[in-house]
Amino acid sequence: MRLRLQTTITLMICLIVALVLLIVYVMFGMKFSRQAQESLENKAITIARTVSRTPVVINGLLENSDSGSIQDYATEISAINNVQFVVVMNMQGIRRSHPDAALIGKHFMGGDETDALHGKEKISIAQGSLGYSVRAFSPILGPDHKLIGAVAVGISLGSVHSAVKQNQWIIYSGILVGGLMGIAGAVLLARKIKRMMFGMEPGEIAKLLEERSAMLQSTKEGILAVDKESRITLVNAEARRLMGSVGMSQDPVNRQVDQFWPLLRMEKVLNNGEPLQDKEVEQSGITLLVNVVPVRVNGIIEGAIATFRDKTEISLLMERLSGISLYAEALRAQTHEFMNKLHVIMGLTNMRSYDRLEEYLTDIVLSIQTEADSVVRLVKDPVMVGFLLGKLSRIREADVRLVILDDGMLPESANHEVSRELVTIAGNLLDNALEAVQGAGNKLIEIGFRHEDSRLTLKVVDNGTGISIVNGDHLYEQGYSTKGKDRGIGLYLVHRSVAKLGGTIHWESREGEGTKFIVQLPYIAKSDDN
């Protein structure tokens, strides 16, 4: 089972605190215990040295009397210093003082007094009549510095252990307090980190980053992000492509955006927090449509993001969508034409001119049937059939005659994309022809299809004003038009679609006589598709 981030952080910090406290206990616990024992040993040897130099003890040993002065003094010293015993012995190891008066005059027990009776101080642990104790021995010297006996001061091991435990309890208390503080700190730190990560687990963050990265890299808009110091932190694949198209091939990451690409004006957005909407940036002959917005965290600007796209591509996308508008326009024209016919029918009905009504309906039915039969007979592609039927209504409404040449036919395409591109080609050529014939007397447009050997030939002919040689040199350039501003897209889209399908297009024209466009495309019919 995978632990949550907060639990993991808490456990790890608690483990670290426990290890540190264990090391502290090992390092300082033993040292404090040893210091406590040494402190008691030093106390015992100090008392032994003091007693060994006391005149009462020295004179008592020299007189070798049992007056009791040594016993009284030793008992007093033992009580004052809170030690287990103070034993004075002569050179034969016979006790001259002892807490148990019945043992005075008997030999000292333990066997560790030998060094002291030979003039050396000693500290040892041995068992005597009062049990195990820490003993400090100090020799007693007479006035002529002659060894006359020894003093033994004892502190019971129970007292030593008690002192050691007192020091250890200090360590235990410190470890307990440190442990509780460490646990509390671990919990608080884990909660703080959790809040900083918006309550998300590492796995969730990793998944989110992967998803965001995939989204950023797959989007068709260029995305460039900077931090609050204006350093570029993120650039997606589309942004690199667009920057390459305008001549910026260097890696922009970690560079200052105002030095790398000052036209974006991202530093202005960072300073005033006001977004830039639909700003046009012209560079190397390419116009980019740029939007820059600030990134705020808790109300504070922490960076900015710029999104940009080639304005030409946006225009092309709008023109592609215009294919839908062609259908909508065709439907509108048919509706308008149908409403006119309904008004005529209603008027003839109200006038009770039933003979004229019958004649009118017969003409309408024959006309519509003739047009529909001609289209359905020569064009087998359903998309193109619907398109042409709609165009017939719109062109008829403009008082122009559209003739579908019967020297060939259009089979249904095996590739739906080819059908869509063919609608774009035919639609824009017919629109251009419709505008070209507006100044003619007998307005006529002809369209024909011929399919042979997996190739399609599309021909559109009009009797309009024609195209001059000067204008013909720029015919397929985007934005070039003699008809006014925001024109010059139709033939550019035609040329683009023809190139996309791997075909060719050429035109013939004479000023004042009309224009002919001939398009040849690779075309696999659905009936021929293997």
TrEMBL record:
<dbReference type="InterPro" id="IPR035965">
    <property type="entry name" value="PAS-like_dom_sf"/>
</dbReference>
<keyword id="KW-1003">Cell membrane</keyword>
<keyword id="KW-0902">Two-component regulatory system</keyword>
<dbReference type="Pfam" id="PF02518">
    <property type="entry name" value="HATPase_c"/>
</dbReference>
<feature type="transmembrane region" description="Helical">
    <location>
        <begin position="6"/>
        <end position="28"/>
    </location>
</feature>
<keyword id="KW-0418">Kinase</keyword>
<dbReference type="InterPro" id="IPR004358">
    <property type="entry name" value="Sig_transdc_His_kin-like_C"/>
</dbReference>
<dbReference type="InterPro" id="IPR029151">
    <property type="entry name" value="Sensor-like_sf"/>
</dbReference>
<dbReference type="Pfam" id="PF00989">
    <property type="entry name" value="PAS"/>
</dbReference>
<dbReference type="InterPro" id="IPR013767">
    <property type="entry name" value="PAS_fold"/>
</dbReference>
<keyword id="KW-0808">Transferase</keyword>
<keyword id="KW-0067">ATP-binding</keyword>
<dbReference type="InterPro" id="IPR005467">
    <property type="entry name" value="His_kinase_dom"/>
</dbReference>
<dbReference type="InterPro" id="IPR003594">
    <property type="entry name" value="HATPase_dom"/>
</dbReference>
<keyword id="KW-0597">Phosphoprotein</keyword>
<keyword id="KW-0472">Membrane</keyword>
<dbReference type="InterPro" id="IPR016120">
    <property type="entry name" value="Sig_transdc_His_kin_SpoOB"/>
</dbReference>
<dbReference type="GO" id="GO:0016301">
    <property type="term" value="F:kinase activity"/>
</dbReference>
<protein>
    <recommendedName>
        <fullName>histidine kinase</fullName>
        <ecNumber>2.7.13.3</ecNumber>
    </recommendedName>
</protein>
<dbReference type="InterPro" id="IPR000014">
    <property type="entry name" value="PAS"/>
</dbReference>
<keyword id="KW-0547">Nucleotide-binding</keyword>
<dbReference type="InterPro" id="IPR039506">
    <property type="entry name" value="SPOB_a"/>
</dbReference>
<keyword id="KW-0812">Transmembrane</keyword>
<dbReference type="Pfam" id="PF14689">
    <property type="entry name" value="SPOB_a"/>
</dbReference>
<dbReference type="InterPro" id="IPR036890">
    <property type="entry name" value="HATPase_C_sf"/>
</dbReference>
<feature type="transmembrane region" description="Helical">
    <location>
        <begin position="170"/>
        <end position="190"/>
    </location>
</feature>
<feature type="transmembrane region" description="Helical">
    <location>
        <begin position="147"/>
        <end position="164"/>
    </location>
</feature>
<feature type="domain" description="Histidine kinase">
    <location>
        <begin position="333"/>
        <end position="525"/>
    </location>
</feature>
<dbReference type="Pfam" id="PF17203">
    <property type="entry name" value="sCache_3_2"/>
</dbReference>
<dbReference type="InterPro" id="IPR033463">
    <property type="entry name" value="sCache_3"/>
</dbReference>
<keyword id="KW-1133">Transmembrane helix</keyword>
